[in-house]
User: Fold this.
Amino acid sequence: MAAYVNRTISMMAGDGPHNVGMLNNGSVRINMANVDSPLQIFVRAKKKINDIFVEIDDYVKDAVTFMHAVAGEKEIATAQDVANVEAYISKVQAIREVLKRDHMKVAFFGRTSNGKSTVINAMLHDKILPSGIGHTTNCFLQVEGSDTDDAFLRTEGSEEKRNVQSVSQLGHALCASRLQECALVHVYWPRELCALLRDDVVLVDSPGVDVTPNLDEWIDKYCLDADVFVLVANAESTLMVTEKNFFHKVSTKISQPNIFILNNRWDASASEPEYLDQVRTQHAERCVDFLSRELRVCTPKEAEERIFFISAKEALLTRMREREKPVTSPTLADGHQVRYFEFVDFERKFEECISQSAVRTKFAQHSRRGKNIAADVMAVLDLIYNTATERKSAMVEKQRILHEQLTSIEDQLTAVTKQMKEKINRMVESVEHKVSLTLSQEIRRLSALVDEFGAPFRPERAALEQYKRALHKHVDTGLGQRLKQRLSADIGHEMDDAQAEMAERMYKILPAAKRSAAEACMLPHKQPFEVLYRLNCDNLCADFHEDLTFRFSYGITALIQRFHGKGSRLALRNPAQYTPIPPSISNPSLPSMDVVRSSGANGFGLSTEDWSTVSKLALGVLTSQGTMGGLLLSGLVSKHNVRQMIIVQTG
Ligand SMILES: Nc1nc2c(ncn2[C@@H]2O[C@H](COP(=O)(O)OP(=O)(O)OP(=O)(O)O)[C@@H](O)[C@H]2O)c(=O)[nH]1
Assistant:
């Protein structure tokens, strides 16, 4: 016995930072305030899993918001995907609600008056539930923590709260309710008054298993979610068939239930100390056999850790004294300290068991559910990410191909532009040649043009001025019209062909799909091509003074010399009407000296030097835009032996 006491005390003292002390009246005080209760495993796990589900909730909501944002973008997320993930919001919410209410539940069973209510009161450190001789508990009482300072009870299915200040009030309230044996009454007790309630333990008291045949209904209603069962047996007798039958039924409905057996009223053994060990051993063996062999809920060794010999009455008394509450039976039997230590040992092992069991049975399932939800959402997000990445890669590849095409088109355009410039240069040369040739031909027939001028010539000064102006106008109009007739259509066709060729080559460079769009931009130049010219006979002849005395003696050589600057250089002093021809565009296909000579033979009498100068003066510059930049024509006119030079400029 002494050895057992010492072992128990050392076990308790070594188990943690407990304060073990003896009170003046001989009872034992164990200060559990500093003990890190095993219940904290559940408390911390509950907090953790609640926090995790808050994160899962945020994660799912963020995912839904994101999916809604991308759903419109080329259906990266399908409507079904969005709906699937959206459904998780309510599921997570429901789990969070369950998690908030999750608690550790212990149910106490046993025959009437074995001391179930007293055990619960001892564990709660207060006389909360009514207890007494006879059948006192006539329904299921579930004691749980209240967040308020008030104690109250509520019957199942009713929202009415009935305040309860004391055990007697609770007893009266229960009697007044006329409850059936399997009815459930919630007894809410301020959490702050009891550590077990503070740590989310719910304790269920039951009527005696020997007073009802409705054990199956009990089990279905109150046992399926219990984490731990405590069989409160009477140590003064052995386990009874009714008690065994109940747990046989429980073990058929619940896999591996956690069952503790409390051999209560062990204080009665104090009166017969000589049989103490023998009776204890006998009870212990039968209990181990029941749990391990009959129920097969644990091994014999594990069963030994689930069987305790206690006195709930003494434990409650001790704790009431600790709290300095009035007690009716102040005397404690011998060995009460040992029985109290064993009660505390039971509580410790019960707390370890219930917290681990509750974490496993309640949170493990929720953890798996949360993990699956997070994995499902992640899989959908991964799918979206992969789809978006594939599309991005495709777009980048498309961009690369387009860039290559663009570079190729740019190169081709550069080549075409170069070729077109060359073509334009050739066209300019061709136009120069045509203009030169046409001009040469027209110059040769200037005499005919002058001959066509039929106005009568009179030597008087006034008449002579009028005659000159009329002759200028006649030559101006006649030569211009001829040039326009002969050059415009010819050069215009050439320009149109060049433009058509340019457009054709541009179209071929573009991708087929883009040609029709480009057509709208590349409108061909519709305006008819026309050689523009301006004959300025008046200005050219402004310094011409007829010499009536030496009439018709002003030779062409003198005129040419005027342009060459050998004489007075009067013509060159009039730059507004004269555009010098750059040497680079002087055309070798200008009228040849032979032609010039033949012209001279026709009456112009020009030397080779004269014709060269005249031809140079006669060429203008053609721009690549299809208009004649400037064309300087020169001609010689002879009429009535009057030799004049006309400079024609087109713009
Ligand atoms: N001597 C002794 N008496 C006890 C002990 N535990 C309880 N009792 C007494 O046994 C009687 C019945 O106790 P209860 O706690 O009401 O028993 P119960 O199992 O809840 O009974 P019901 O509610 O009727 O099923 C009370 O008078 C208690 O004081 C104990 O360990 N030793």
Summary: The chain has three domains: 1-101+356-406, 103-323+330-334, 445-650. The CA atoms of residues 139 and 180 lie 6 Å apart.
